[in-house]
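Board notes (copied after class):
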Amino acid sequence: MCDATLKASARKALESIGGTDRYTELPGNQEYGDPHRFSVSLAAKRLHSELPRRNKCAVYKADGKNDFPLLDITFEPQVASSVPGKEAEAKRSEVLYPIGAFAAVNSKPGSDYATLIFTCATKGPDGSASHVKASLYVPTNQTRPDSTTTDRMTVLNDVSRAMAEQLGCADEAALPTRVPEPAKG
């Protein structure tokens, strides 16, 4: 899953989120020729591309009972001025994590969103960026009610660590091998 970026703790977190240990990604290619299956190198190559051209990790339960992914992970370049500070106050539905430049899980009716922004200078046809924003979307109707915000951040962190390594910015990205407890507000 996700180009073999999920380590043991993230695979366990994914199992907690979806209630199974069997997952799949879409086979075949998209209409412009890139594979549906996630590739860290392709995601890095397409980081500055238009949104539909970016490579994303879409994980489906292997039981085939749902046409929608259990989770989506996407990456996009981010300029420093749009990165919330670590001192950002958590909104009522947001749980902050002390990793990267900014990390939070936000629950909304019907879904959870995890955001992890890490320092990583990149250049593309649209210009330069100082950070990369990783986003994870999970629809709550496919998740187990006892899964946690840390489960979501653990999965997002592992894929983001692999992306930071691919982009050559793992040292400054500040993404740990193990996600710490959420920051206390």
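Comment from the instructor: The helical segments are 8-18, 40-45, 149-167, 170-173. The mean pLDDT is 90.
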